[in-house]
Amino acid sequence: MKTRYLLLGLVLLCATLELNAQKKLKQGFIHYKVTAIQNIELFTIDVKPLVPKMGIKIYFKDNMILTQMNTGMEDISTLENTDSRLIFLLMNMGMAKYAVRYTTDEMIAQKDKQGDYAHSIEYTEETKKISGYKCKLAILTFENNSQIFVYYTKKLAYANKNFTSNFYKLDGFPIQFTSLGPGGTQIEYTATVIKTKLQNTDILVIPPDYEETTMGELQKMLMAPTPE
Fold first, then answer.
1. What pTM was computed for the model?
2. Domains of the chain, start order
3. Is the dihedral angle over the CA atoms 203, 5, 190, 164 positive or is it negative?
4. I want to staple 76 with a disulfide (CB 3.0 to 4.6 A). Which of 38, 66, 69, 214 is the partner?
């Protein structure tokens, strides 16, 4: 279960945006692709064939944000309403599909417990041009002394409406970042597509074949004895 929370925390790295810190983007699409993996030999399986599928896709309009993460072996999706402060983890379990409901406060408490919020951000003068943006390097340090290295731009600013995000205190928008992966690996994500218009807004709802529940209710259902 802790692993799922850690993955969910990574899925929720990015959400609401505004342009130049004044004009907010009302809708759009962002695609972070995996562009490098350090210590890839530490994976217990050969992940090289899986890398082209790996990445994070974010669809948003107004207060709704759909985030889809492909780990190469698993798809993880969340749907967030920043007005009602509700987050739904969309779980496809084959024969059954669930929209597991969390409140933002519950997610913040869970991430605080795990030390998933950066307690310090170091802004450096190191620059690099990525995806057409001149970016600066920032280093986020967490309570367990782990670090995330982020190249960010101020031409796109990260809005603070999504308080579940690890980056909500970052003074700018992350274009490229590294995150800890399984077994001490480091995975680099790069925003290769940034669009300011969302073509299909119908995806920003819970699919009709998903049953809404909570994690506690779902655990009770999964542990219940199967009728003979």
1. 0.80
2. 2-223 (2.50.20.10)
3. positive
4. 69
